[in-house]
Amino acid sequence: MDDRDGFTVAFGPVGLAGWALLLLGILVRRRMVSLLGLAGVVADVTVAELGGFKAMNEPPGASPAADA
User: Are 16 and 40 in contact (CB under 8 A)?
Assistant: First the structure.
């Protein structure tokens, strides 16, 4: 069985900071802080160059940054 067969949830530094800001914004009821955190989480999930969720779930060498 290949190690890449499973589904891995991994957040990079941008995603972790995003989660922290999102939770902080919810707890102190600040909409802008929550939106900033949500933007960080979405960026981490969609941009492989940030080294988070998307980078962990794509095949090795598929990132444009790997070509440079």
Answer: no
Q: Residues 47-59: pLDDT tens digits? A: 767 766 666 666 6
CB 9 within 8 A of CB 53: yes
Q: Which residue has the tokens 């802008």?
A: 32
Q: How many CB atoms sit inside 10 A of residue 52's CB?
A: 25
Rounded Cα distance between 66 and 45, Å, is: 18
Predicted confidence (pLDDT) per residue in 28-49, tens digit: 999 999 999 999 888 888 876 7
Q: What is the pTM of this model?
A: 0.65
Residue 38 vs residues 5, 7, 33, 60, 67: alpha-carbon distances, Å: 28, 22, 9, 27, 29
